[in-house]
Amino acid sequence: MSRVFSLGTMILDVMFENYQAKNSNPGGAIFNTSVSLNRMNVDTNFITVIGEDEVGKIFLNFCEQENMKQGNIVSKNGMQSMVALAFLQKSHSTNYEFFGEIPYQALADAIPLMRSTDIFLFGDFFSSRSEFAPVLQQIQCTPILYFDPNIRSAIGPMFWDCVSKCDILRLSADDLHSLNLSFAQLCSKAHDKIIIVTDIESVQFYLNSTHHTINISKITPVCTIGAGDNFNAGFLKKLSTLGLERATIQSISEQQLQDCILFGIKCAQKVCMSFENFVPRQFD
After folding, report:
1. Is 3.40.1190.20 the CATH classification of the domain at 28-47+102-272?
2. Ranges of H-type helices in 218-253
3. Is the distance from CB of 11 to CB of 74 less than 8 angstroms?
4. How far is CA 109 from CA 112, 134, 138, in A?
5. For 6-20, how does the pLDDT look when each residue is reduced to its tens digit (9 = 90+)?
6. Which residue ranges does the record assign to the Carbohydrate kinase PfkB domain (predicted)?
7. Measured in Å, how far apart are the chain's first and last C-alpha atoms?
8. Which CB contacts under 8 angstroms, 24+ apart, belong to 59-66?
């Protein structure tokens, strides 16, 4: 089974419903994926930098309770750990307000050496910013590179640089809308990548110059926070079992890719039925 390395920020998500604080969880897109992978017994190595503050202590305590590896979590003196206020809407969508700082150079310095059989997950909303350049430069081309930009609003200047480096590009339908591209146009621009676009009703994917669609059964979600992150977790869980490496990732079969996507959908829907950002332990 492949090891999964993931690079991102830890954010304390404080969720509000009807403007009343409902609960708080350590989160962040890449972190949510990492926790779920760890809960599904994938060898997971989360890379991040946090502040030496009370919020940072919450993060470290959570990782200890989850039995997560902490060798690539760096605590930095004088830095403010990140907090997000998440406002749940009547439509079950979520609006966010962020506080704290992203230490780009420290993130770049924290990236360890990896093997060709490893998988490296990167992205999130900050990865398209110009400040991400030193991080992208430090990312090695040795492992399989999986990029989820989680655009949120406008596309940043580093987006296409990240796309050019990755092997697998995963977008939401909202991300695609932010790019002002159709699925076919995106595939034309990134024709040498494996491309996955997830929506509420279907998942489109592009493999070896061919478009495919998988329809999704309808559910009534409790909360959509972490849905895309846990799609990534399910996808990467299955991918980690295939014995592929960067030199052979393009040889993945349509059926293998579908199996990865279907388990990603299963994980996403499971998380949508609770207020937690992660799948249950031992989920399969």
Report:
1. yes
2. 227-239
3. no
4. 8, 9, 8
5. 999 999 989 898 889
6. 23-272
7. 15
8. 59/10, 59/12, 59/26, 62/26, 66/35, 66/38, 66/39
